[in-house]
């Protein structure tokens, strides 16, 4: 019973999903706080917030009202995403891949030394074998033994 649970947990997609959900959710709050307290004030140095608190360049609309492009929100979202992805990758994905490599090495799994031939390579081999058969007195390529010859 425990071995089945261990096999289920050690499957890569279950581990990856658990890591993404738990760590991504927990770490997002930390990254958002860092971005809000450090990056947003830096962006605010270049643009003044409008009445609704949006930070970014402001232009006058068609009817004269100011329109703000909220670049602060975009920059915050991009930096948050990159920070979370970076931490999840280096703290969880890289060690898990190393663990899987060690487990495969212990089990004696060896990478295939020679890759399998592609479909095109197989078709070329079949064509060559048919030509060799025709040259040795067999049927010509594209013909069926015993079939009437076409003009």
TrEMBL record:
InterPro entries recorded for this chain? Answer: Mechanosensitive_channel_CS, MS_channel, MSC/AndL, MscL_channel
Q: Which UniProt keywords apply?
A: Cell membrane, Ion channel, Ion transport, Membrane, Transmembrane, Transmembrane helix, Transport
The transmembrane segments are: 14-47, 74-94
Where is the protein localized? Cell membrane
The yes or no answer to whether the keyword Metal-binding is present is no
**A single MF term (Gene Ontology):** mechanosensitive monoatomic ion channel activity
Pfam annotation, one family: MscL
Which PROSITE patterns does the annotation name? MSCL (PS01327)
Instruction: State the annotated membrane topology for this chain.
Output: Multi-pass membrane protein
Query: Which SUPFAM superfamilies is this protein grouped with?
Result: Gated mechanosensitive channel
Q: Name one GO cellular component term.
A: plasma membrane
Against PANTHER family, the record matches this protein to:
LARGE-CONDUCTANCE MECHANOSENSITIVE CHANNEL, MECHANOSENSITIVE CHANNEL MSCL
Its biological function?
A: Channel that opens in response to stretch forces in the membrane lipid bilayer. May participate in the regulation of osmotic pressure changes within the cell.
Q: How does it assemble?
A: Homopentamer.
The entry's family comment says: Belongs to the MscL family.
* HAMAP family registered for this protein in UniProt: MscL
Protein name according to UniProt: Large-conductance mechanosensitive channel
Say which species the protein is native to.
Microbacterium saccharophilum
Gene designation per UniProt: mscL
